[in-house]
Batch of 3 targets.
Target 1
Amino acid sequence: MSSLGWILTLNFGYHNKNYETVNLENYSITIPLHSPAEKVFGTSINDIPLWWTEIFEGISNKQGESFTILLGEPVVNQFRLQELEANTKAAFYSIL
């Protein structure tokens, strides 16, 4: 956590509805949150449908597991939780 808030950094590509790969460069956003670390962290890995998309399938809170999201009709992506440090770090990597 930085002094400005939690930092979410994404670096991934995704597949559109024709399964063509669309690559994205580093995408970073800083979001200041005024909640206990346990609550923020718990929501970020346990409740993905609440903050990312409701169209979610899989396991997002166990290291090595994966989940799939659908961001509207044209965008499908699958992620694996590669790194997990309780209340500190969760690193999701695109695997689709």
Target 2
Amino acid sequence: MSALTHIKRKVIVLFKKNIDDHKAALSGAIGTGISFSPLLGFHYVLMFILNWFMDLNFPILAFTTSFNNPWTMVPMYAFDYSVGYWLIHSVFKVTTVFQFKIRQIYYIGPSLEKILGDGNICLWSFFVGGFVVATVAGIIAYPVFLYISRSVHKAVKIKNKWKKDEDHNG
């Protein structure tokens, strides 16, 4: 069995339970938003808090929150930063924002300074971009997860109907 087939089966199991389509889609959308948020180290804390307050579907929420993992963290945060940098410096034309000088941290300064060019990281770009990307990702994810949930529930109903017909005819 291929990895893609295995993942597909696991996703179907998540949506197979008798849960409301809206609740499944909301859980997926919020988890996706959490995974793109710039709150380093607080993704799972935020997941537990929102699950408790909003009574979401925990398996779907945990699955989608895990989109941000050690393999995807660097590209996701680089994308967050670039979107925020573009918004702050190109769209809103803000020039004076708090910048973090990498040269001030001696034990990691030289390597990060070579990677990032001039050695400045605009923290506002990271946070603004992160929250904007998280919001957009969550909004886009809602209809996707709603479609997945409805499709799985429809397929399960058809499969159960066939099973009943086979039992009745057999």
Target 3
Amino acid sequence: MPDHRPAAAAGPVVAAGAPVVAVLRFEVPEAAWSDFAAAGERVVAALAAQRGFRTARLGRSVDEPGAWLLVTEWAGPGAWRRALSAFDVRCELTPTLVWAQDAPGAFEVLYERDADGPAYSHGSALAPDAAVIAPGAGVRTGARAGGDDGVWSLDAR
């Protein structure tokens, strides 16, 4: 017998590669609200010109108007990182960072659903050892390889 359930009820679509949502929080003094809003529009325009850009929203809290938020979505972590290194993005974003709050800001999307569309499940792009080792780093072991030339032998656990 054929399955007549709506596609969304059949379970999430498994998609390759997780998109990234980047969240920047700001605490902006009242005297700077107007200038910050204009600067935020320029930041969004610069980000929107980058490859892998999906969407952006600049908003502020309805309860605490000094609390602002910039939320962007990217095709993946590489697109987000490349966008941040673009010259025009740095020129527009850097002046706003004086009000940025120090907090984790990039999140991989593992599950998503829009109001009218199917659900999507994304696999994680994080390396299995992402929480314990940084890119390009290793665990120093024993003595230096090759003597005193400053090169360490790395154990890529």
